[in-house]
Amino acid sequence: MNNLNRLNAKLSRYSLYVACACLTGLLLVVVYGVVMRYVFNNAPPYVEQVALLLVISVAMFGAASGVRDAGHIGLDSVVALLPAKIQRWCSVLVYVLTICFALLLLAGGYEMAVSTFATTIPTIGVSEAWRYVPVILAGILINLFSVEHIVALLRFQKVVPSWH
């Protein structure tokens, strides 16, 4: 379990670094686009597509890191009233459902990447499949992180967040 914990902690940290870098890039690209459009009256055509790729990346890598650090939104007011043993099994169920969602994310992202591989994003000249790479990677990461949480719950342990 320690190897999985170390691997997932590093992956989560790198995932958050990528999300932060993409968020910084998004800020720079959008500011650049606005300045070019309204100050120089020369709007670059690629700004919107690059910004869209960066938004997808921020959302996917941020969500994956949030699963590892248990930072996702939870409505546990009813579960908190249950006995501790049932609370633990509810947590296991949540992570099993998270795995199901991540598998759908992974499969859907892969299917979309394959179906759009031959199509090019006209303003930046890369394959449409690149839009789905963050979705596929997030699906893989969310699965790894959820398995780690399930194993920890079954062993009566806690997953130490990457940012402690």
Automatic annotation (TrEMBL):
GO terms under cellular component: plasma membrane
Name of this protein: TRAP transporter small permease protein
Source domain of life: Bacteria
Keyword Transmembrane carried by entry: yes
Keyword Membrane: yes
Alphabetic keyword roster: Cell inner membrane, Cell membrane, Membrane, Transmembrane, Transmembrane helix, Transport
GO biological process: C4-dicarboxylate transport
Organism the protein comes from: Jezberella montanilacus
